[in-house]
Automatic annotation (TrEMBL):
It is found in: Membrane. It comes from the Bacteria. It is a multi-pass membrane protein. Signal peptide: none annotated. It comes from Heliobacterium chlorum. Keywords: Cell membrane, Membrane, Transmembrane, Transmembrane helix. The keyword Membrane applies. InterPro entries: ABC/ECF_trnsptr_transmembrane, ECF_transporter_component. The chain crosses the membrane at residues 23-56, 68-85, 105-128, 236-255. This is Energy-coupling factor transporter transmembrane protein EcfT.
Length: 257
């Protein structure tokens, strides 16, 4: 999952689009997925995202992230199957609890919820893997008028997620080399094994935060009169893509209501 949220530089047409265009694409996909209620249109939307990922040469990273989402999707389907009361009852696993009956509408609704979740996450992963952090900050600040502090906080959090996961892996390997067992025992024993992992991780994170604060202060972070080394403006292709996205959202709204 960590590799899927890092920018992957390639020379694909998707990478050459403006960051604002790709951000609006992710928001448009989110809006359309919320308007769609049937599994088949959501499945087609999901496969179209995989096609765009292949065009952008990031399909391997996107598919690895999708594999990690399958467990969550399966849990969502099970949850809706047993707690969605509408529709024709197919079977009741517990005869004494008729409220837990599985219905045909419950299965379809659960599949729709799972597909919607996968579509939304995939669209934003596609945005993150094809857009540099600098371009994302510029788009949020210059075009969407998000305060720079919030935009910087958002990008910094995304930037350090892969680093955080890599440190968890390295600390776990180091502690296992010191004969720490992270897999054996019951729930209480497993809870105790978290401390040899959490304490070094917290110390490293605090040291990194202190170094980053010093670096930001020396670079004048927070002072007025901010300038940018290079700015980017949407081109003709970006404008056409944005118009197509707005048209797709409008069609989805008309079909829904």
């Amino acid at each position: 999952m960590s590799v899927s949220i890092e920018y992957i530089p390639t020379g694909s047409p998707v990478h050459r689009l403006h960051a604002l265009t790709k951000l609006l694409f992710a928001l448009a996909v989110l809006t359309i997925s919320m308007l769609l209620s049937q599994p088949l249109p959501l499945l087609l939307l999901f496969f179209s995202l995989l096609g765009i990922a292949a065009l952008a040469s990031v399909s391997q990273e996107i598919l690895s992230a999708v594999k990690g989402l399958l467990k969550v999707a399966f849990f969502l389907v099970l949850l809706q199957m047993f707690f969605y009361p509408e529709g024709t009852v197919l079977f009741a696993p517990v005869s004494s609890l008729p409220g837990l009956a599985v219905t045909d509408q419950g299965i379809l609704f659960g599949i729709s919820i799972a597909l919607r979740m996968m579509v939304i996450v995939t669209s934003f992963l596609l945005f993150l893997t094809t857009t540099p952090a600098r371009s994302t900050v510029l788009s949020l600040v210059e075009y969407l008028k998000v305060p720079y502090d919030y935009a910087f906080l958002f990008i910094t959090a995304l930037r350090f997620i892969p680093t955080f996961l890599e440190e968890v892996r390295l600390i776990g390997q180091a502690q296992e080399a010191r004969a720490h067992d992270f897999s054996g025992g019951g729930p209480l024993a497993r809870l105790k094994t978290i401390f040899p992992l959490a304490l070094p991780l917290v110390m490293i994170s605090l040291q990194r935060a202190e170094r980053m604060a010093m670096a930001m202060e020396t670079r004048g972070f927070g002072l007025p009169g901010r300038t940018y080394y290079r700015t980017e403006k949407p081109g003709a292709v970006d404008i056409m893509v944005i118009v197509a996205l707005l048209s797709a959202v409008a069609v989805a709204v008309l079909l829904r209501f």
